[in-house]
Amino acid sequence: MAKIIVVTSGKGGVGKTTSSAAIATGLAMRGFKTVVIDFDVGLRNLDLIMGCERRVVYDFVNVIKKEATLNQALIKDKRTPGLFILPASQTRDKDALSMEGVQTVLEDLAKDFEYIICDSPAGIEQGAQMALYFADEAIVVTNPEVSSVRDSDRIIGILQSKSLKAEQGGTVKEHLLLTRYNPERVAQAEMLSVADVEDILAVPLLGVIPESEAVLKASNQGAPVILDQESEAGQAYLDAVSRLLGEEMEHRFLEVQKKGFLKRLLGGK
Amino acid sequence: MSIFNYFLKKEKKSSASLAKERLQIIVAHERSKRQQPDYLPLMQKEIMDVIRKYVNIEEDQVTVQLDNNDDCSVLELNITLPE
């Protein structure tokens, strides 16, 4: 039985697509057959982050409208075996996704895949609700910043009331993923700390991704940042994937890194 | 920076703790609203209309709140009557 995980946040620009790409890649690296779906109809971007934008022929909406089969629309990732991407449509018709259509596609995918990652659009409208409706688990991506935390709380409210699991009297398992974390600013009391955000949202912490130049570099190259295992962000995503699989890991990169003498001398970062 | 700034700075709260305080208040407020049943705003309006038949009051002089305890719900109606 496939596990459906939605990556959501309410607020835009906090790192949903970056996180979806990284976590889907991480799960495939661990040997699980994984598909990542872009639910952002109209503003397709996952394909760029995954580096497969030139290989998109058919998309999610084509499959729902039966203009293409699932196999025609799925893009096989070239870097990571066992990883597939289902791109969003660029149609401007925002009602192109139907609940029944989404359900059929998810049921079909569940036959072949172990993990289905749903990259949610921003907002709390129909598109975001569609992305989370069938989820077994949710990764709530949050920045340590007031508007992002508030919006995360709103989306948590929707997960707890408007998901299929909630309607059936169950719960969607929630995970907090704190991204763009800057330990220096936290140390100077200029940024909400991990503990502050955990305190407010009361959702178990899946991981903390430090603000890192590697993220932009990765998106420039179209390679998920988790593949850059030299970078702190890449390592933090690897840890998050391990925790998602139930392994206990200590949280890293929460403290200010002391620069070594040589590094300071050379001005390295 | 003068020596006065040094002392003044200590008095001021850090921006992170200010953020946390503001968030705790707004999130608690929004959560309590979220748990309200859908009919509450309309019911509040109708109660207002009934009261207005007899007493002249403003909208902000009435608060309606529904608290859910384990086995019972308490509907609290607070009306401030003009003198």
From TrEMBL, chain A:
ATP binds at residues 11-18. It holds the Pfam family CbiA. Gene3D superfamilies: P-loop containing nucleotide triphosphate hydrolases (3.40.50.300). The keyword Glycosyltransferase does not apply. GO terms for biological process: division septum assembly; negative regulation of cell division. It comes from the Bacteria. InterPro entries: CobQ/CobB/MinD/ParA_Nub-bd_dom (IPR002586), MinD (IPR010223), MinD_FleN (IPR025501), P-loop_NTPase (IPR027417), ParA/MinD_ATPase (IPR050625). One of its GO terms (cellular component) is cytosol. The keyword NAD does not apply. Residues 5-225 form the CobQ/CobB/MinD/ParA nucleotide binding domain. One of its GO terms (molecular function) is ATP binding. Transmembrane segments: none annotated. Keywords: ATP-binding, Cell cycle, Cell division, Nucleotide-binding, Septation. Belongs to the ParA family. MinD subfamily. ATPase required for the correct placement of the division site. Cell division inhibitors MinC and MinD act in concert to form an inhibitor capable of blocking formation of the polar Z ring septums. Rapidly oscillates between the poles of the cell to destabilize FtsZ filaments that have formed before they mature into polar Z rings. Interacts with MinC and FtsZ. This is Septum site-determining protein MinD.
UniProtKB/TrEMBL annotation, chain B:
It comes from Paraglaciecola chathamensis. InterPro entries: MinE (IPR005527), MinE_sf (IPR036707). Pfam families: MinE. Keywords: Cell cycle, Cell division. Signal peptide: none annotated. Belongs to the MinE family. It comes from the Bacteria. Gene3D superfamilies: Cell division topological specificity factor MinE. The gene is minE. This is Cell division topological specificity factor. Prevents the cell division inhibition by proteins MinC and MinD at internal division sites while permitting inhibition at polar sites. This ensures cell division at the proper site by restricting the formation of a division septum at the midpoint of the long axis of the cell. GO terms for biological process: cell division; regulation of division septum assembly. The keyword Acetylation does not apply. One of its GO terms (molecular function) is identical protein binding.
